[in-house]
Write a structure and sequence with these properties.
Blueprint lengths: L2 E7 L7 H15 L3 E7 L8 H12 L6 E5 L7 H7 L4 E6 L11 H16 L3 E4 L2 H6 L10 E3 L21 E6 L8 H9 L6 E6 L6 H13 L6 E5 L3 H10 L2 E3 L9 H8 L4 E4 L4 H4 L5 E4 L4 H12 L2 H14 L6 H11 L9
Helix pairs in contact: 1-13, 3-4, 6-7, 6-11
């Protein structure tokens, strides 16, 4: 039996794309017969406290020598000194969604320190798993040899028979955004764009945690009140899978104004459901979302985003065309079973067999 240990900061059940990916891969490996163990570090990573680092030393010390240990990229910064010793007895693998140092809102000094930590930690990895070709290319700038890198794209959860279709109607259009409310996801840009479109009939539903970035939430609520769109924008917080599926089923357009995505799982979920996408050209988004089922604009450009949204709000035939194209594209999207099998293959040659 093959074994793998996964090290993550905080709770694996946190409902964000990165944690969902980690959880789905672990579940898939278990179904493939792997023995999996999850180790949770203090949630202060990637900026760990002194106490968090002490606890992390205990976590790694308890892992038997020779084990394959996959470390979520959020936990890498701050671990470089610890990993220097552990790399001699463990088979270390990094799982990178996107480099932490590229996170939106970091000042120059903070980004530089995080990048330095990531570079040192990545140099100790025997293998690096990434979720997109874009991230693989980006890690070239972190001096990660391409021979170490394996790309394992996320799967999708949609039932393959599900497709609601685009509506040709003058009713209120349902816009859906699925993203944790943080600066990187660009909610403020989206609200600014929608403020220019108040003459159209639309309602925006935003699903995703409201607790990860209190400052960004406060600023967004202030902005929504200032442009007087409180009755047209719903900040829903985290939703369970059944409730979120109902919002997907009602959506006419999926919109995400993100400044960076290492893949864009919610975008893939929208495509898999035949929902036209309006998003940005940031990071891996153009590789995740087919050009013929989306309209992509430069990140941070609210005027371009407003223009893209207006063009689709006003043209039901174009929405229908994009929806049909998305439906065809979903056939090319991997399932979570595919992703787990590919992840297992990415660990080939590292050992990790139980006694």
């Amino acid at each position: 039996m093959r074994t793998v240990d996964l090290v993550v900061p905080g709770d694996l059940n946190t409902p964000t794309g990165g944690y969902i990916y980690d959880r789905k891969i672990i579940e898939g490996l278990s179904r493939l017969g792997w023995r999996t163990t999850v180790h949770s570090l203090d949630p202060s990573f990637p900026r760990p406290t002194a106490a968090a680092l002490r606890d992390a030393r205990s976590v790694f010390a308890a892992i038997a020598a020779g084990r394959v240990v996959v470390i979520d990229g959020l936990a890498l910064p701050g671990l470089e000194r610890l990993l220097e010793a552990e790399a001699k007895r463990l088979r270390l693998v990094a799982l990178i969604h996107h480099p932490v140092s590229l996170e939106t809102g970091l000042d120059r000094d903070a980004a530089r320190l995080l990048e330095q930590s990531e570079r040192i930690a990545l140099a100790m990895m025997q293998r690096v798993v990434v979720t997109s070709q874009w991230t693989a290319r980006t890690l070239g700038g972190y001096q990660v040899p391409i021979a170490k890198v394996r790309v394992v794209e996320p799967g999708t959860d949609v039932k393959r028979g599900h497709y609601r279709g685009a509506r040709e109607t003058t009713d209120t259009l349902n816009l859906l955004c699925v993203a944790t409310l943080t600066a990187r996801k660009g909610h403020a840009v989206l609200v600014e764009a929608l403020a220019e479109l108040r003459d159209r009939r639309w309602h925006l539903s935003c699903a995703g945690s409201l607790t990860r970035d209190p400052h960004t939430l406060e600023e967004l609520n202030r902005q929504i009140a200032r442009v007087r769109l409180g009755n047209r924008i719903s900040l829903l917080g985290d939703l369970n899978s059944e409730t979120l599926e109902r919002y997907y089923e009602r959506a006419d357009l999926f919109v995400l104004a993100s400044y960076l995505e290492g893949y864009g799982m919610a975008l893939a979920e929208a495509v898999a459901r035949g929902i036209p996408v309006v998003s940005t050209t940031a990071g891996a988004i153009p590789e995740t979302v087919p050009a013929d089922s989306s309209v992509l604009v430069r990140a941070g450009d609210s005027r371009a985003l407003a223009k893209a949204l207006a063009s689709l709000m006003d043209d039901p035939h174009e929405r229908e065309k994009l929806a049909r194209n998305a439906l065809r594209a979903r056939k090319r999207l991997p399932s979570w079973s595919d992703a787990a099998a590919k992840f297992a293959a990415a660990l080939d040659g590292l050992g990790g067999r139980a006694a």
